[in-house]
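Now for our specimen.

. . .
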Amino acid sequence: MSYAYYPGCSLHSTGSEYDISIKYIFNSLGISFEEIKDWNCCGTTPAHCTSKYLSVALPVRNLKLVEDSGKNKVAVPCASCFSRLKRAKYEISKDEELKKKVDGILETTYRNTVTISHPLDIIKNEIGLKSVREKMKRSLSGLKVACYYGCLMTRPPDVTEFDECEYPVIMDEILAELGADVKDWSYKTDCCGASFSISRTESSIKLMEKVIRNAVECGAECIAVACPLCHANLDTRQEDINAKYSKNFNIPIFYFSELMALAFGAQGGELGLKKHITDPSVLLSRYNLS
């Protein structure tokens, strides 16, 4: 099982701990992967706000690099990158004129042979829950987790083709298999306002407060995410939320892969958990996971 690996800008910078934990669990599960050589930014929100052609050409260039490497599958951990690569593939598959235009911009011909997968999908549907459980060295038993997918991974469903649009369960099933007490809650796919965190901070804080409050009300002690933007927003803004809404939130935000890696035997120091703003150490010590 061999994949090209597209980290995107966040996993090489602010979300580097996500990159570390994804690589740890891929290695643990025997998933062969190789980072795309000379990859470029997927364009995320700025590109499609600037130019339709740019927003498609940037992701397609990465897919072409995968194709040229001889691989036909790429793993994309970042929800925003996953969304943009899937959107580009969808659009050139539906619009031949757009594909010709993009090929012209890139001065090459992309044959559109690459399958784009999120690690959650690979783990659940390619590796299987049984194999996940077999790699467990310590259980997440008792750890109360709200699995947060955010607004990009499942929408629009005909583009992303990821789980159930409004109520995805892949992350829940994987963490439950490792013993976690996964909570049923209402804000799995609501937006946290990450794109507005700087430009419209008050709006973003309002959205985040709802997400965290609902998770806490449902009994969660932590939130698991699969998006560097969601992680940064929910992890760094809790003091702002507390000040505005007279709350006392102090709920750790984990990448799902960090929890998996801990269950597979990794130590917190290996995973870069000290980068987290909301300190997870007390919670992890409570469950002998530190």
